[in-house]
Model the fold of this input.
Amino acid sequence: MSTLTIETTRSGLVESVHAVSVAVVDSEGALVASAGDPQRFTFWRSAAKPFQAMSLVRDGAAERYGFGSRELALACGSHSSEPMHRALAASMLRACGCEEHQLACGPHPPLSQAVADEALRAGVVITPRWSNCSGKHAGMLALARHHGWNTAGYERAGHPVQERALDEVLRWTGEPRDAVRLGVDGCTAVCFALSVRAMATAYARFGTSTEAAARTLREAMLAHPELVAGTGRPCTDVMSAARGAVVAKVGAEGIYCAALPGLGLGVALKVEDGDMRCSPPALLSVLRQVGERRGLGLGGVADLRQHSEPVLRTTRGEPVGALRATGALRFH
Amino acid sequence: MSTLTIETTRSGLVESVHAVSVAVVDSEGALVASAGDPQRFTFWRSAAKPFQAMSLVRDGAAERYGFGSRELALACGSHSSEPMHRALAASMLRACGCEEHQLACGPHPPLSQAVADEALRAGVVITPRWSNCSGKHAGMLALARHHGWNTAGYERAGHPVQERALDEVLRWTGEPRDAVRLGVDGCTAVCFALSVRAMATAYARFGTSTEAAARTLREAMLAHPELVAGTGRPCTDVMSAARGAVVAKVGAEGIYCAALPGLGLGVALKVEDGDMRCSPPALLSVLRQVGERRGLGLGGVADLRQHSEPVLRTTRGEPVGALRATGALRFH
Done:
């Protein structure tokens, strides 16, 4: 078994170690490269969002409510609660005749520390549209409205909105129903547990699909990376730097997924312990290794040192160590 | 090899896993129980504080500046920046004729989320006495003053204050000088890398020593657990509940150490990936296993479910999973 590890260093010594499971697959689901356990079964969390948003486009709700590439990027994103994100979520709700109190997602401190600090300083009450998932939830409400389904309970297993999300998860992963388990995500919506390999398969297909809905969502994410995450966040910076070569989406508890349309490959990884500091260096190591092996140019991705080897500092701001990836993928 | 693991669950599935290395030793340094790699070499971080404070008492500085049990508990602690902690750090500085700008520790968001949020809301500027290490640093300044050493650079390797700290680390662990490496801690002071087993040895000795300085510090920590950490924090709650049976001190990056004076044992553990959510459940599992095996009553420690099995919640506050320890120590 090949291993990929993220180490944190301090004063030249390795202080902590994080194991990573990785699957790189083609659109047939064949394993191209791996590390750790590519069959690791865990929750997809927010990296499932493009597939949770698929029915919004396929079923005609996006067109009906005038959702263009900006709204769809937000629906696929885990945003930083910046003003542009909150305003767009609010306008999606208005477009489908819903109000903020109908969002099932709860408020939480913004993923952007700067936005979180500013909100506390300003004494602002953080409401559900601030949730990093408010674009996904607004899209789910729009889908319910479009079909005339009850909007109450749209986030729960068994509601037709979640049945449609599950349909798309099964369709894109190719997994049988009994290989996927349902759970409750941090935002209260259904989340999906499946193998890391199945996640990668869905991304490989998402990156190369000629289906209109998939193309629309993929192009929306690539056109508006700032709406998929936010200022300075890894998804945003990787997609901006890769200039179309990578579609990247993070998930909670150490999940990262990406499509490499130019190679027809999908990537999924899980930091075994769920550390969110480690998933970006792990993704960038995988992208570098696959890019080198397959001769894929990744634009400015190699320059994103703030994400591939983030510096650790003392409380006086002096560098004292870093996160770094070690280990090589096994190519099959 | 025996394993101790902390799992996080979501909707009944294990989502993330954290390996833990543990050493339980007697005051001779003999291994009584272990899990993972008891020889794991890593930084002691803030769990070294009682030994960093030892010379403050032994050399007469504490007596000279009127530091009683409250000041010494703060010097051994990683406090939550609550008003009582900041006021006590400020009074320690005044007592030895120093000012806040002489503290080498940098400001950081308080370890207590409630205190951090309140500070941001109130627009307070967080200064060095808010550092969780300000009691340690005030003690180091007092030691420098007492000896007539230059206070500038007191935090750096080679300064006599740090030489005294190193002396005590070697004396209590029994390690040769070349088995200990120096680094820079988050607060900019010297930190010490050594084996988890050596850390446990120092705690076993600290818990049972009849030396005046050790007794004074141990009794200070037990008398004022609220100054060793803060409201609702694990060190504070464990020491309060155990009624003298446990002296507990957390360190950054997944370190936890404890003395069990009634058994003459010391405990040290490292969560391999450094996760700070996991070290309290790991410590409580080790305490429970050792207590059961050796027939040691631990008072109300078993009731601290908020630390042994913390609940994970959605952004709507609904329970969705928990952290839990699995695996058994190997008793030698």
Summary: Residues 4-331 of chain B form a domain with the Beta-lactamase fold (CATH 3.40.710). The first helix of chain B runs from residue 49 to 52. The mean pLDDT of chain B is 97.
